[in-house]
Every structure is written in C-alpha cells, then in structure tokens.
Amino acid sequence: xxxxxxxxxxxxxxxxxxxxxxxxxxxxxxxxxxxxxxxxxxxxxxxxxxxxxxxxxxxxxxxxxxxxxxxxxxxxxxxxxxxxxxxxxxxxxxxxxxxxxxxxxxxxxxxxxxxxxxxxxxxxxxxxxxxxxxxxxxxxxxxxxxxxxxxxxxxxxxxxxxxxxxxxxxxxxxxxxxxxxxxxxxxxxxxxxxxxxxxxxxxxxxxxxxxxxxxxxxxxxxxxxxxxxxxxxxxxxxxxxxxxxxxxxxxxxxxxxxxxxxxxxxxxxxxxxxxxxxxxxxxxxxxxxxxxxxxxxxxxxxxxxxxxx
Length: 309
Prior knowledge:
This protein is mainly α. The chain has one domain. The chain is built from 10 helices and no strands. α5 runs antiparallel to α9 and α9 runs antiparallel to α10. It is globular. The chain starts with 9 loop residues before the first helix and ends with a helix.
C-alpha cells in the first residue's frame, strides 16, 4: 500500500483521506447506534405526513416515462453520421443530463396533473400540528418549530444518512470484489471488471470540462430524478399499500435497475437503497434523500477522478 501511493499526488492523498475519514465516522456512527439500541433508546426519527394521493397507474406511467422517454431522446441525438454506438464521449454525458432533466420535468407535471402537487407531497412541509410544539399548562413554547427548522433538520439527517451508509456499502463492495476475484481465479479466467460508461469517458478524456459534466449528471441530475422516482413516487405509493414492505421493495428495484447494464452494483448499492428508504419512510423528506444520494455519488466521483491517470 505504501509503494502504491509513494508517487501519489496531493489530490489523491486528499481523496483517500476523505474516504478513510468517512469510513471511520461511519463505523463510529454505527457503534453509537448499537449503544443506544442496547440502552433501550428509540431510534425513530419520524414525523407525521399525509399519504401520497397518487394511484398505482401513476407509478406505472412514471417508470414508463423514466425508461423510455430518455431512450427516444438519446437515440434521436445519437443519429449522427460517423458516430460509433460503442464509443462513449462527453456528448453522451450531456445527452444524459438532458434526458434526466426531461424525466424530472415530465414526472412532476404528471403528478401535478393527476393531483395538485403540494410542498407537503415532497416533504418540504409537514402536517400543521407538527409545525407547532405541544404546550405545557397552556403556555406555548417560545421557540416554535418552523418550516425552516424542519428543513435544516432534514438536511442534517440526510448528511448523517450518508455517513451511516458508507461503511455497509464499502464492506459489501469489498466482499463482492473478493468473491468475484476468487471465482475467476478458480475458473482460470482474467478479471476484467465492467466499468461505468462515465468512468470510461473520464479515462479517455480527463479534462475539467468532462469532469464538470459528469459531476452535473451524477451529483445533481441523477439524485433529483432517482429519488423522485424510487422514493417519492414508488415508495410513497407502496407505503399506502404495505408500509412494512415499502422500503424493501423500493430498495430492491433501485439496486436491480442499477445492475441492468451488467455491472455488479446491485449488492453494494442495496445498503445505500435501504438507508435512503428508511430515511424517507421516517421523514418523508425529498431534500434529505437527495442530499444523501448526492453526497454518496460525489465522494465516489472524487475517488474515481483521483485514481484515474
């Protein structure tokens, strides 16, 4: 390990230190959770919220829009002479951003047409009685719980969720990588790990403009679209049908979709999906899960950039 980083740049050292620090904080967080659980303290962080008003038909249409609308956009944009469909360039990242923005806009409009979309549906506000603290002996609390206070709390919980999920994701990823290496070695095969297309683009064109477009796609657009689809639309609807299975089902769908292109991401991303689902079930806060997802993708992108040549 020392020889591996002997000629590493300061940027690479910074990225590795950030990863190790996050891993240590995650381990400490889980130790604190275990201590609280052993002492009988409640681990609930929930607030009240009305059930989402949309039906199962809206969920089906949302997934249709998500998986087919971007396909038409990308195919139409890719119909250029002399372009190889197997060559990924920064133009593909730009098209992915455009497709993601289109997804989010269509999903929001579809939800609004089906039922007037309110701030409460996305977790910006809670039930009215949660905005005012309980009174004691008829005397109101001089520090009322305002909307801004709730939002700050949600963002803090999103950050803590990012810390919490890092160690389980890292552990599962190491187990999957070790198992893959052992299986390939047992069969006498060469380990050629599949890469995300964005990482291939980054290796072929390591420019700051490329990094900026990839960061926009994975840190901003992807969390906004995916959390709107998997947590707000899908899990929000499932909680009205079976609250006990809502987190598990939405997490399985989220992890499974990320493995459709052949990458072994389903198992490592499952702890992330469970954390996102738990926080959304407890807080029903769209900003909280978007921040968690963005921080997770951002740290992974930082590590990928630091390790690239």
